[in-house]
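Renewal narrative, Specific Aim 1. Our central claim is that a sequence can be written position by position from structural information alone. The example that follows is taken directly from our test logs and has not been curated for this report. It begins with the structure tokens describing the chain, in the order in which they were read.
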């Protein structure tokens, strides 16, 4: 794997202020084309290798309103052993500098080996990552595969400014479609969010989720990551 500068196509610093404004207003900002063509190919190979030993999850999350989990996952404790490449990218200083600028305060890596970087794969009709908030402030989601059209499902659904899960069914909730190589940043501890179900056979949504936090804020607040990735 090449270094991070060959994997990520970070926004130029002159755009950071406008991105920060959007993130501050919505708790979400799109980062289209965040992964380079070379990076997408190489991360795709890593993901396929990791998926061979992934675990299928089909249950309701008790600490998140019994929302559904139908997905295949690899936790960070397994990724760190099997993919030093992903671990290096997670710790990239230029990437974390961008995230610090968008948040407006220093961003650091998560100590929790399970939740810090995970692989999520939706690949069966009805697969979904149900309603939740995260333990840590920031989720950077990197798309390696995505359904081609919004009507195919696999959409991010979130409600700006609300952390209650019922907000996802209330006016003001948004749905966003992403493409392979896209990324987005979510204020994931304060923003209720979920992934809508895949609508038909043959679709795949494969993402890396990088969790970040702020100095002095370490430690999971719920059991959700342990149940989904442990």
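The sequence written for that structure reads:
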């Amino acid at each position: 794997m090449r270094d991070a500068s060959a994997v990520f196509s970070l926004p130029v610093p002159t755009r950071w202020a406008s991105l920060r404004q959007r993130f501050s207003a919505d708790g979400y900002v799109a980062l289209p084309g965040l992964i380079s063509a070379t990076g997408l190919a190489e991360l795709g190979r890593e993901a396929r290798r990791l998926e061979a030993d992934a675990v299928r999850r089909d249950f309701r999350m008790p600490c998140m309103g019994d929302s559904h989990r139908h997905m295949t996952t690899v936790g960070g404790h397994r990724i760190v052993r099997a993919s030093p490449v992903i671990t290096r990218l997670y710790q990239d200083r230029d990437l974390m500098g961008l995230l610090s600028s968008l948040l407006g305060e220093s961003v650091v890596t998560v100590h929790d080996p399970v939740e810090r970087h995970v692989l999520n794969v939706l690949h069966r009709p009805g697969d979904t990552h149900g309603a939740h908030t995260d333990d840590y402030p920031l989720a950077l989601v990197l798309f390696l595969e995505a359904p081609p059209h919004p009507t195919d499902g696999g959409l991010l659904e979130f409600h700006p400014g609300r952390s209650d899960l019922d907000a996802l069914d209330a006016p003001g909730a948004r749905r966003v479609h992403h493409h392979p190589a896209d990324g987005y940043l979510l204020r994931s501890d304060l923003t209720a969010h979920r992934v809508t179900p895949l609508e038909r056979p043959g679709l795949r949504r494969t993402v890396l989720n990088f969790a970040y936090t702020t100095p002095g804020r370490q430690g999971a607040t719920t059991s959700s990551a342990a149940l989904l990735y442990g």
